[in-house]
TrEMBL record:
<dbReference type="InterPro" id="IPR036291">
    <property type="entry name" value="NAD(P)-bd_dom_sf"/>
</dbReference>
<comment type="similarity">
    <text>Belongs to the NAD(P)-dependent epimerase/dehydratase family.</text>
</comment>
<dbReference type="Pfam" id="PF01370">
    <property type="entry name" value="Epimerase"/>
</dbReference>
<dbReference type="InterPro" id="IPR001509">
    <property type="entry name" value="Epimerase_deHydtase"/>
</dbReference>
<comment type="pathway">
    <text>Bacterial outer membrane biogenesis; LPS O-antigen biosynthesis.</text>
</comment>
<feature type="domain" description="NAD-dependent epimerase/dehydratase">
    <location>
        <begin position="8"/>
        <end position="241"/>
    </location>
</feature>
<protein>
    <submittedName>
        <fullName>NAD-dependent dehydratase</fullName>
    </submittedName>
</protein>
Amino acid sequence: MSTRPLAVVTGGAGFIGSHMVDLLVDKGFRVHVIDTLVGGREANLAHHGSDVVLDTTDIRDLEPSSPLFAGARFVFHFAGIGDIVPSMEMPVDYMTANVMGTVKVLECARAAAVEKLVYAASSSCYGLAATPTPEDHPIRPQYPYALSKNMGEQACLHWHSCYRTPVNSIRIFNAYGTRSRTSGAYGAVFGVFLKQKLAGKPFTVVGDGTQTRDFLYVTDVARAFWAAADTALTGQVWNVGAGKPQSVNRLVELLGGEAIHIPKRPGEPDCTWADIGKITRDLGWQPEISFEEGVAKVVAAIDYWREAPLWDPASISKATETWFKYLG
């Protein structure tokens, strides 16, 4: 029987989750990964060998007695469904996965008496926010994805207050980096641009490209989740971003290539900007990877996106019809 501590990572074969697994293994943990592999890749875990055990159970099907959680010290909950437009088209799926799935994970963590559960929340809960955005900013979700992620966070905080389940929540701003998703709906700018660069096509810049996003490299995100687990504090919510917004035009400049412009979408913020003062004060966490360094890391691994869908103005227009319909 191994004497190494155990952690559970839901969604651990996906983008941020797989980097969390890397960090945990480096810290001497065994890891149970729960991932249906709808958005994740088993290949993201292959280099860990027997240190990592993958289970493809849907989190909505978990029972409190699940042996996957037995003896676990920490649970990191990343599993769920992302993307804005599909959430407007399939709201029930988002509520069941992101809310009831979270409740199932909470019940497993409670039954296993884990030391800490850290929930992956979303900065989309703030809606069109004042910037920089602190944790006590009003919550104004604009679409079912944002609502479902915030309701998952509320469930975590309720389990903390009602059952004394030790939880913390991290509201992620604009995470980017290697292993980000390559399939599915039109969405995150990095995946779109990287495939366009591979194909020698122009970057489809929304609006004039001056809009800014608080991009944070994925290993810095994983470090924040570790800090949120390895603390005596519980029942806390922290923003995680770089605290230094970057424009889409700057991303185009770093990637190198031509750009074409497509219509600005209603309900999209001109700026996302995390106030990271609270997590810096409470946990001593700060970002380490500069935007320029992070983009270089992604470009060095660009072949990962070779099988991603190639988007152009016509296909983007078709894919975002629902967005304009409901948020216009």
